[in-house]
Specification:
The chain has helices at about 10-40, 45-50, 55-70, 70-95, 100-115. The chain is an all-alpha fold. The protein starts with 11 loop residues before the first helix and ends with a helix. The mean pLDDT is about 85.
């Protein structure tokens, strides 16, 4: 029975695929965290901090306020980036393991690092 995998262990392409997989999982986790963190910020609280907080709070609130002001665009951007990372993950895993294994591992990784963290 022939090996149906694209890459063998210890080739350059193998390590590139592993690196891309790790980066995709980290990116999906970061997008999930940013969605939760940025969407939970109140515009009123940020505006108050930007005007009357400590100098450090003023600086950070002034940087975050323009991003959070357009909440629909922010939410769509974060969700599309997260979905793109989740959809690309099985494509890169498929070259290393079987198709059903790629789906199972990608769902598990996204659940652990993207949704629960």
């Amino acid at each position: 029975m022939a090996n149906s995998f694209q890459y063998e262990c210890c080739q350059t392409e193998f390590f590139i695929h592993i690196l891309v997989i790790v980066l995709l999982v980290a990116f999906a986790g970061m997008m999930s965290g940013l969605t939760l963190g940025l969407m939970s910020l109140s515009l009123v609280d940020l505006e108050v901090l930007a005007k009357s907080g400590t100098p450090k709070d003023k600086k950070y609130a002034a940087k975050i306020l323009p991003v959070v002001k357009n909440q629909h665009l922010l939410l769509c951007t974060l969700l599309i980036c997260n979905a793109a990372a989740m959809e690309a993950l099985p494509i890169f895993l498929d070259g290393l393991i079987t198709a059903w294994g790629a789906i199972l591992i990608s769902v598990t990784l996204i659940l652990l690092f993207g949704e629960l963290s």
